[in-house]
Write a structure and sequence with these properties.
By secondary structure, this protein is an alpha+beta fold. It has four helices and 15 strands. The protein has one domain. Helices cover 21% and strands 39% of the residues.
């Protein structure tokens, strides 16, 4: 009899744990921005033009995302917004940002199964990137601060990443063919154990609490609103649309497309007197 009772207790514990995991849900809203700090030679652009260009670039990187989550799954999606016009100033320069298509992109993560599916609309084609979640070697630190009503703890890790590249005109063609420079930087995150899930915005996860703030180089992501266990069930659906590739294959395709795009916009000798300015920022 004791054995039967023990088995029943274990079974009920598993059932209730599963139910609790399924019922615990939330919605977090994040604001992102990227610091733009590019100095140009005065022969390329006067102070007024440079200020206007930097302001336009800043607005390009100010976005709002929604993270829907439960104990095991999450989806991260940019909020719908009006289409932004192509960035330019009377043909004097073009800013080409290499990245996803924005509002239609969806990042689904399953932290229990350690995998993700990301639907990305890039260059007018939809891809479905499926791969394993890369483990982040977080270092938990003792620093604390409050973000809203939540007490948060600091965590950091070091990463190697490609430096942003700037191409001014056709005279920089040799620079375009060089291997990208890599740099090491420290990523800082603030997470709250008061929300006991290991999710976070974008590709940041794996901490003992929801990540509310991230500082990654010039990129900053800050949570502005949290709703826990809303009355309406939170929609967490894994995307299924797009050409299925893994992360490595997707990056190969994007690198090829980026080079094709840069070649298309590259100023040619004899056109615009070689004065066009083109700026590309990765990430």
């Amino acid at each position: 009899m004791n054995t039967i009772i023990r088995v029943l207790v274990i079974a009920l514990t598993v059932v209730f744990s599963t139910i609790n995991a399924q019922e615990f849900q939330g919605i977090a809203t994040y604001k992102t921005q990227r610091q733009v700090d590019i100095k140009l030679d005065s022969t390329q652009m006067n102070d007024e033009m440079q200020a206007r260009m930097l302001e336009m670039m800043k607005k390009q990187f100010q976005k709002t995302f929604t993270l829907n989550f439960n104990k095991e799954e999450s989806t991260y999606k940019q909020e719908e917004e009006l289409d932004k016009p192509n960035v330019g100033m009377g043909g004097e320069f073009q800013i080409v940002s290499i990245g996803g298509g924005g509002g239609s992109d969806i990042l689904y993560k399953n932290t229990k199964e350690q995998r993700y599916s990301e639907q990305v609309d890039t260059y007018g084609k939809i891809f479905l990137v499926k791969d394993e979640i890369e483990k982040i070697d977080w270092q938990l630190e003792s620093d604390t601060k409050y973000i809203g009503e939540y007490q948060c703890y600091k965590a950091t890790y070091k990463k190697m990443d490609e430096k942003p590249r700037v191409v001014f005109n056709s005279d920089d063609e040799e620079k375009e063919d060089k291997e990208p420079e890599m740099e090491e930087r420290t990523v800082t995150a603030w997470y709250t154990p008061q929300i006991p899930v290991n999710h976070g915005p974008d590709n940041y996860q794996g901490l003992p609490g929801l990540i509310l703030e991230v500082h990654d180089g010039k990129l900053t992501i800050v949570c502005s609103k949290i709703v826990l266990n809303p009355e309406d069930k939170v929609d967490i659906t894994e995307p299924e649309k797009g050409k299925v590739v893994n992360q490595e294959k997707y990056e190969e395709i994007m690198d090829k497309k980026a080079k094709e795009m840069m070649e298309r916009f590259r100023p040619r000798k004899g056109r615009d007197n070689g004065e066009s300015i083109e700026i590309r920022i990765g990430g």
